[in-house]
Amino acid sequence: MKHSLREDEKNRLETLVVETEKRTGSQVVLSVIERCDAYPEIPWKAFALGCSIASVFALNMTMVNSFDSPEDAVMLALVMILAAGGGLALLCIFFPDFARLFLQKSRAATETRQYAESFFLSREMFATGRRKSVLLLVGLFERQIVVLPDTGLADKINDKAVESITVVMRPLLRSGKTAEALEAGLKKLAEMISGPQTHCPWKNELPDDVIEEKGV
Hints:
Helices cover 56% and strands 12% of the residues. By secondary structure, it is of the alpha/beta class. The chain folds into two domains: 7-38 and 104-215, Diaminopimelate Epimerase, Chain A, domain 1 (Roll), CATH 3.10.310.50; 41-102, no CATH class. α6 packs antiparallel against α7 (178-193). The mean pLDDT is 92.
């Protein structure tokens, strides 16, 4: 997997995680996922689009030009249609930015959320002493952000709070500034969960390193 964060960026974020945890008495985990689902339908959507566009050109070509035999016209049309469909499908495989054009926003949000929930459970983030843990996860391909709190922070990290965090992160994430997006989100998250009731002895219960995964 090609890491999206440089070593100095990871070190900076890990330091901020420790500072945030000490300040708020909570446990914070940052995660960057390359792709939260395989999305097998995307190349097929591109293939269908390519075939549709090429079929229009093929039809116009057969109407305008004369061929020695109908078989020649049919063969040429088939080659054009399949080549166009296959070409767009291959672009989806090798160029994520192009593939993202065929990904519905609702599907991206759902898959990223499901990945975050699975991550939360598999890493046993619910096992902290006061149930005050929170996952801040970024899906790079999806360009989606998930903030997932445990029960001890659910009252502070509500839908409104999550939206205020994602608002500051989205522009940075879209421009490819993953580290800056995480830093901005972490600072906003710290504001949300800070309070007088959080000033208590701090115990580090979860890893502080930024977890990068290839995903599905």
